[in-house]
Amino acid sequence: MRVQELIQTLNLQPHPEGGWFREIYRSAAQVKPEDGRPARDALTTIYFLLEADQHSRWHRVQSDEVWIHLEGAPLALWTSDAQLRTPPALMRLGPVDVHRGSRPQYTVPAGQWQAARPLVAQGDADYTLVSCTVGPGFDFDDFAFMRPDGDEAALLRHHWPELAALI
């Protein structure tokens, strides 16, 4: 019931990486990234909702992305460097809980691989609602999914097969 209420109230639409979203802010100011990309909006923000059976597929963004837990079940957010040289790190987003290692916010540095899914346990909500802020602002030209037939996917399947379902 709460999921449908949020989708309707926040006017969320299906997101290409999975789940539901709506852009809620796009800065009128522009910045010139130092990495050679053309000018981008300074900042963008979205609502992003994942239902219990949904996940955010492995992807990377060429700008820093701040994930902020708003409500619902905690979120498992995995990140790894651009070449998958290190094991994906797990960050648990949710209300601050020192015993479970949760914190309400985490920043994924530009260019890192990232994937997420709700951590729904008995008694938890069956969804996670977060806000994602990107700076310089999000542009689909700066976004890439992990290709299922690519080298990174092969590395992930070989070294961390439990995370391959998120490709």
Overall tally of structural domains: 1
Strand line-up in the sheet with most strands: 1-2-5-13-7-11
Q: Mind describing the biggest β-sheet?
A: 6 strands, antiparallel
Radius of gyration computed on alpha carbons: 16 Å
CATH architecture: Sandwich
β-strand amount: 35-45%
What is the CATH H-level superfamily? Jelly Rolls
> What number is the mean pLDDT?
95
| Overall geometric form | globular
Number of helices: 2
Short description:
With 167 residues, the chain is mostly beta strands. It contains two helices and 14 strands, in the order αββββββββββββββα.
Structure description:
- 10% of the residues lie in helices and 43% in strands.
- It has one domain (2-166): Sandwich (Jelly Rolls).
- The protein has 167 residues and is mostly beta strands.
- The mean pLDDT is 95.
